[in-house]
């Protein structure tokens, strides 16, 4: 069955395949071959004491002459080129005179057809005759190689070409591999939402597919007889693909239906009902993604909070047992539609430390308010429709605080704007913001040690515009303002909403993606959105004393510089005092 956890993508070539291809240049055979043809282990030397004119003058050669001749041969590691160079130092002709031989039936008679004279060049490029023994020691070659070179030239009149390796099928195999790649890229795949860490960049094909089926489909479609091993090698070395989908944070409803359908004792009627409910559930999930990608002329925004980044980040074992300071990242992405790239200008990352404020709905509402008014305010004034997509986290974004911020923002800044806020089916919440987080995590994994927030900021800046807390934006108390303006007893439950709409003083509510909106009033009697002005929230250091102790110990274990320790001491300066003051207050209340 098809999964709706993610969005379909086309398969693309990957710079890092599912498997790493063996580097044949590092094998023992390749290293021995390179050493053989490099001459590094074969220093030039003289192996005779001849000094006969026109026969061998090897003893007259200096060390510079030997080095010059040796380096000229091994200036390349190509054997064919080396053989041609050796042939240029050889004078090959037919045997003119033969010595008389003793008749001995015990010895094998070998009548050579050719005779060879050997020469070498001096540093002054003067041709000097040498004997075969010295020729071999100067160039570091064996007699069989010289014999093969001379024999081939005498029979064919040209230098000996390369005959090793059998039939040359390189061009044909390249064409076959290209056809295989084109076939694999016709499939669609999906990324994993939460399983990025174990297999970065891994995409997943349907579970009912495998390489053998893909190979058979390729042969049927192309009428080519290509081996399974070639198809498999292209699949694992050129693509980072797997089958199925990691069972991590899967939809509980999907899992429940799958288990019921596999129950051998289920009746046919129950099985049909269960299957119908399962199909309905999956169609609802698909409708969310269809709505997400149906951008048209609207301004579509997706947002989510990234997994907490830890400080300090270090590979030492003590890190895994210590509490660490959190850096929060709230990502807001302008989504332009299915298949379109995510530009750096479309990604905005709001960051703050655990020592600066909480991770709650006030921070989410404040970041969104800053984004809509200060970052994309001009675009929203030109646009008539704003669409929002996020997960259904009640403590952060799916609550009355964010809803009241949107209502007040529309009334005060964009009175002609229609806002529609859509939530996914539970367990099917893979959004474009999660793609950004996946790319950021891949870059973070390349850094073993990160001690300061600035190092995280440098990585985040590669992926989008970073907005730092207290420097670029501030937190406002939307929770208190919403309590003062909104009814405490409402005629609908936000937690049940699938779509919310704001185009007037009323809020449209739908529990399903289809159908009509049901309008509700959330303002208290006599209250107006024009007067909704939340106060600035003060900074709140949420670090506990136990975490302060662990982080400072960890800094000492890492051996960080003094400037790093001073940074953390300044962050934790009021942690102990704050808790001591709280303890004194509790003790005094007990005495009273």
Notable traits:
592 residues; alpha+beta; ten-stranded mixed beta sheet; four-stranded mixed beta sheet; 19 helices; elongated; disordered N terminus; disordered C terminus
Overview of this structure, please?
Mean pLDDT is 83; it is low at 1-6 and 578-592. Helix 9 packs antiparallel against helix 10, helix 11 (361-375) runs parallel beside helix 13 (400-413) and helix 17 packs antiparallel against helix 18 (562-571). This protein is 40% helix and 14% strand. The strands form three sheets. Strands 8, 9, 10, 11, 12, 13, 14, 15, 16 and 17 form a ten-stranded mixed β-sheet that branches. With 592 residues, the chain is α+β, with helices and mostly antiparallel strands.
Any idea what the shape is? Answer: elongated
Total strands: 17
Strand % is: 5-15%
Biggest beta sheet summary: 10 strands, mixed
Mean pLDDT: 83
The DSSP helix count reads 19
Percent helix range = 25-40%
Please render the helix and strand layout as text.
Blueprint: E1 9-10, H1 28-38, H2 63-73, H3 79-88, E2 90-94, E3 114-121, E4 127-130, H4 132-139, H5 143-156, H6 170-184, E5 188-191, E6 203-205, H7 211-222, H8 228-238, E7 241-243, H9 252-262, H10 268-293, E8 299-305, E9 309-311, E10 325-335, E11 347-353, H11 361-375, H12 377-382, E12 385-389, H13 400-413, E13 418-422, H14 432-445, H15 453-460, E14 465-468, H16 478-485, E15 499-502, E16 507-510, E17 518-520, H17 545-558, H18 562-571, H19 575-591
Parallel strand pairs: 6-7, 8-12, 11-14, 12-13
Antiparallel strand pairs: 1-5, 2-3, 3-4, 5-6, 8-10, 9-10, 10-11, 13-15, 15-16, 16-17
């Amino acid at each position: 069955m098809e999964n709706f956890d993610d969005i379909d993508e086309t398969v693309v070539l990957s710079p890092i395949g599912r498997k790493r291809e063996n580097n044949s240049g590092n094998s023992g055979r390749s290293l021995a071959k390179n050493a053989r043809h490099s001459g590094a282990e074969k220093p030039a030397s003289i192996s005779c004491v001849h000094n006969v004119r026109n026969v061998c003058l090897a003893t007259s050669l200096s060390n510079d002459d030997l080095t010059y001749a040796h380096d000229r041969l091994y200036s390349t590691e190509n054997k064919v080129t080396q053989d041609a160079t050796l042939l240029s130092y050889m004078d090959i002709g037919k045997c003119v005179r033969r010595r008389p031989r003793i008749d001995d039936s015990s010895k094998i008679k070998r009548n050579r057809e050719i005779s060879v004279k050997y020469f070498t060049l001096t540093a002054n490029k003067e041709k000097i005759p040498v004997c075969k023994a010295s020729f071999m020691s100067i160039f570091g070659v064996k007699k069989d190689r010289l014999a093969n070179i001379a024999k081939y030239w005498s029979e064919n009149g040209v230098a000996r070409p390369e005959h090793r390796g059998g039939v040359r099928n390189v061009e044909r195999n390249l064409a076959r591999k290209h056809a295989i790649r084109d076939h694999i890229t016709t499939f669609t795949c999906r990324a994993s939402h939460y399983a990025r860490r174990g297999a970065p960049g891994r995409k997943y094909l349907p579970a009912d597919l495998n390489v053998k089926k893909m190979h058979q489909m390729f042969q049927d479609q192309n009428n080519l007889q290509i081996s399974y091993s070639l198809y498999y090698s292209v699949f694992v070395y050129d693509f980072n693909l797997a089958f199925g989908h990691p069972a991590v944070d899967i939809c509980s409803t999907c899992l429940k239906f799958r288990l019921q359908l596999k129950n051998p004792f289920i009746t046919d009627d129950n099985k049909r009902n269960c299957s119908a409910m399962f199909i309905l559930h999956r169609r609802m999930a698909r409708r969310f993604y269809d709505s997400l990608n149906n951008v048209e002329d609207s301004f579509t925004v997706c947002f989510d909070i990234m997994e907490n980044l830890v400080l300090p980040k270090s590979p030492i074992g003590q890190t895994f047992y210590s509490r660490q300071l959190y850096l929060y990242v709230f990502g807001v992405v302008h989504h332009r539609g299915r298949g379109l790239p995510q530009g750096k200008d479309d990604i905005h990352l709001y960051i703050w430390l655990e020592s600066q404020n909480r991770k709650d709905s006030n921070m989410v509402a404040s970041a969104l308010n800053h984004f809509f008014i200060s970052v994309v305010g001009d675009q929203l004034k030109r646009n008539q429709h704003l669409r929002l997509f996020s997960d259904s986290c009640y403590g952060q974004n799916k609550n009355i605080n964010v809803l009241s911020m949107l209502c007040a923002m529309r009334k005060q800044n964009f009175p002609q704007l229609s806002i529609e806020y859509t939530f996914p089916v539970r367990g099917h919440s893979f959004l474009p913001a999660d793609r950004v987080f996946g790319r950021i995590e891949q870059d973070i994994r390349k850094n073993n040690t990160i001690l300061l927030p600035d190092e995280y900021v440098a990585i985040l800046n590669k992926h989008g515009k970073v907005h730092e807390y207290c420097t670029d934006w501030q937190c406002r108390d939307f929770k208190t303002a919403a309590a003062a303006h909104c009814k405490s007893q409402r005629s609908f439950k936000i937690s049940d909403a699938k779509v919310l709409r704001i185009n007037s003083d009323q809020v449209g509510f739908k529990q399903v993606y289809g159908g009509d909106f049901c309008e509700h009033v959330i303002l208290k009697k006599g209250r107006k959105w024009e007067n909704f002005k939340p106060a600035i929230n003060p900074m709140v250091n949420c670090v506990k004393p136990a975490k302060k102790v662990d982080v400072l110990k960890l800094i000492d274990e890492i051996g960080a510089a003094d400037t790093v320790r001073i940074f953390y001491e300044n962050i934790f300066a009021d942690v102990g005092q704050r808790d001591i003051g709280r303890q004194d207050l509790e003790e005094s209340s007990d005495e009273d």
